[in-house]
Task: inverse folding
């Protein structure tokens, strides 16, 4: 019988053959004219999507409407350029895009490009005129910051008013930042090199509000001059790539078209070993959002940049910040990356709508800290184990390279040598990775049997089994997850839950990504006759779905923990269900498996946990903070009266400081690196400090503290 890896590999080869055959069928012309690159690309991509996607769409008016809505959303995500009359012109094509893509044409895209080019030219003169005059920050008026809550301007006058408020808001934010900086300098004690007053260092001259306002407008003007310069650098290839990717994204959020340059960015940007800040970024609705912080990176160590933050501006050291709002992701990434030792200053918008300037010194991402690490917890004489797994890593190019399953196995061996009475496996913020490692890792905790089912569009599922009958660790187990636990993390958590092998704890659900993608190089699929117009880029296709051994999919719904805890990220619109056009949840026939003999008493453990959480001051404060965040997130209008705006910012900061103070006052967890590991590190102070950094944030982790309590309830 063929192995699952061989089956999946053969399936990928069949799909590639489909591309090649389709290329010959679709592109041989009878009129003697050489096909254009855009025509070939769109037809090839559409053929690949129709033949190879897990759930291919019908190319009809419903498809056309989806492409129309998503492309319009991306063409002018802020709704600050196009007029309603422009949208009405574009809407004439909303039921014709299916016909266009089948012909290999793109009249809809061309009209959108023409209209945007004209409006960009119009707005360029508009913002310069508005910024030539001072703003009055004493007037009571508001600005809506959420683009979903505004409509396209009805006419040029309404558009000018919207831009006036927008530019006033941008200027006010900078004035407020200047006031904060001036106040900090004023509060600093003066340095002195001698007792004589004449030699004492004097403070900078105090700027008046009017001077700050003029300087802020000057900065905003440069900010938008740079932004519009970048807009005008968009070429035909960029526009075609955006349109092609929009078509791909209507199939599901993880099906994408990569232009040659974007494929390279996908492979190397913000992951692995590189010089930069160590943050994974994504572009969503014209905004650059932090999706993940790479463990061990400069951002991770600095500690202020968080998943969910939106990057507004980027500055190289002391230079003037440059806006990245509406900027293409690869361009934003290139600005944030840089040489080790250099400074980048990020102006970010936090999920509670407050803004913050974060200074990060770029560094080489420390790969070692992306590997599994363990520690021991001593809770009133009870010794427990803790394993942090940042992702499911594996070196696919080296059979002897490190793998997450092998490393977790080693950590379990070390914890067993420490005689721990229970283990916490932490999968929070683990976005997934190697499927095979997830299967092997589940096998460390259960006897041999099925772990996950994988089904492609052909229908019959492949069951991936743990074939090792040995149980590496058979004691009490808690698996921690949150809404950023995805893919392979969800497979492992689901298997532990279905086997009743341990207790899954965390936020209301995991991310909900239960799909498998494969990348196809379009250049390899195209016949030689198209060599003159290559490269075409790549197509990332969703080809399969994951299913639990109980038959349910991990797609869309994710994994619902056995014990749900208040979570600081619960108010964020993060997860598969919040994306555009996600594949839905479904179920298939369960696999045959036998539950763990010593299954934990989930109901009893849940009741005890709920009682502790309800009486915890830290969890109560966390729940209160989340409620305030929800309110602030929904209240997207900001006052353009400077005193009101600063009061709102001060209140947000006070609430954040109060939360941090209460968490810091909590009884710390007695967690420490393993004695064995410290002994191995010897006199290497860098590695010893790294081990200490690993456990430091865990000492005040209230979720981990509750996981410890649940473990102790089972002992």
Result:
């Amino acid at each position: 019988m063929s192995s699952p890896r061989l089956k999946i590999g053969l399936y990928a080869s069949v799909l590639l053959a489909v591309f090649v055959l389709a290329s010959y069928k679709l592109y041989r012309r009878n009129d003697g004219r050489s096909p254009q690159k855009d025509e070939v690309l769109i037809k090839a991509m559409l053929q690949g999507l129709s033949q190879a996607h897990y759930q291919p769409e019908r190319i009809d008016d419903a498809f056309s409407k989806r492409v129309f809505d998503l492309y319009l959303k991306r063409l002018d995500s802020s709704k600050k350029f196009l007029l309603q009359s422009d949208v009405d012109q574009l809407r004439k094509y909303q039921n014709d895009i299916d016909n266009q893509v089948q012909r290999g044409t793109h009249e809809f895209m061309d009209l959108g490009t023409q209209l945007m080019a004209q409006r960009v030219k119009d707005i360029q003169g508009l913002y310069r005129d508005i910024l030539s005059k001072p703003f009055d920050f004493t007037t009571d008026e508001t600005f809506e910051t959420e683009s979903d809550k505004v409509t396209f301007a009805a006419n040029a006058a309404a558009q000018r008013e919207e831009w006036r408020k927008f530019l006033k808001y941008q200027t006010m934010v900078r004035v407020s930042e200047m006031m904060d900086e001036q106040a900090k300098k004023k509060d600093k004690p003066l340095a002195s090199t001698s007792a004589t007053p004449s030699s004492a260092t004097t403070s900078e001259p105090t700027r008046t509000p009017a001077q700050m306002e003029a300087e802020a407008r000057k900065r905003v003007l440069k900010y938008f001059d740079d932004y519009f310069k970048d807009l005008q650098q968009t070429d035909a290839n960029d526009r075609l790539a955006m349109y092609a990717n929009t078509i791909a994204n209507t199939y599901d959020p993880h099906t994408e078209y990569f232009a040659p340059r974007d494929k390279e960015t996908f492979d190397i940007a913000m992951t692995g070993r590189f010089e930069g800040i160590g943050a994974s970024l994504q572009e969503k609705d014209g905004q650059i959002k932090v999706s993940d912080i790479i463990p061990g990176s400069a951002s991770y160590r600095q500690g202020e940049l968080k998943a969910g933050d939106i990057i507004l501006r980027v500055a190289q050291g002391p230079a003037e910040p440059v806006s990245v709002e509406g900027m293409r992701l690869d361009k934003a990434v290139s600005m944030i990356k840089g040489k080790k030792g250099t400074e980048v200053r990020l102006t970010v918008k936090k999920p509670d709508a407050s803004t913050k300037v974060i200074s990060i010194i770029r560094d080489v991402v420390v790969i070692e800290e992306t590997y599994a690490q363990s520690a021991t917890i001593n809770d009133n004489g009870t010794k427990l184990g803790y394993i942090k797994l940042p992702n499911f890593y594996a070196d696919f190019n080296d059979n002897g390279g490190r793998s997450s399953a092998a490393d977790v196995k080693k950590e379990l061996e070390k914890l067993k040598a420490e005689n721990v009475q229970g283990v916490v496996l932490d999968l929070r913020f683990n976005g997934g990775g190697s499927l095979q490692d997830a299967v092997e890792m589940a096998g460390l905790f259960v006897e041999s049997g099925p772990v996950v089912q994988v089904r492609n569009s052909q229908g019959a599922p492949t069951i991936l089994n743990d074939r090792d009958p040995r149980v590496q660790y058979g004691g009490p187990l808690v698996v921690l997850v949150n809404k950023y636990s995805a893919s392979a993390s969800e497979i492992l958590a689901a298997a532990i839950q279905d086997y009743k092998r341990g207790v899954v704890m965390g936020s209301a659900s995991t991310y909900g990504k239960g799909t498998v993608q494969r990348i196809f190089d379009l250049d390899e699929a195209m016949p030689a006759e198209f060599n003159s117009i290559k490269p075409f880029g790549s197509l990332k296709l969703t080809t399969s779905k994951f299913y639990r051994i109980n038959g349910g999919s991990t797609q869309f719904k994710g994994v619902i923990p056995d014990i749900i805890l208040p979570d600081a990220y619960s108010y964020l619109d993060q997860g598969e269900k919040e994306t555009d056009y996600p594949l839905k949840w479904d179920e298939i026939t369960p696999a045959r498996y036998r539950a763990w003999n010593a299954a934990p008493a989930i109901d009893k453990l849940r009741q005890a946990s709920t009682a502790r959480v309800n009486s915890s001051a830290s969890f109560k404060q966390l729940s209160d903070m989340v409620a305030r965040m929800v309110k602030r997130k929904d209240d997207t209008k900001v006052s353009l009266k400077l005193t009101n705006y600063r009061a709102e910012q001060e209140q947000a900061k006070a609430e954040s400081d109060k939360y941090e103070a209460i968490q810091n006052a909590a009884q710390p967890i007695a967690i420490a690196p393993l004695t064995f590991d410290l002994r191995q590190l010897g006199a290497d102070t860098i590695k010893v400090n790294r081990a200490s950094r690993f456990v430091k944030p865990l000492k005040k982790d209230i979720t981990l503290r509750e996981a410890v309590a649940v473990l102790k309830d089972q002992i």
User: Anything to note?
Assistant: The CA atoms of residues 54 and 457 lie 5 Å apart.
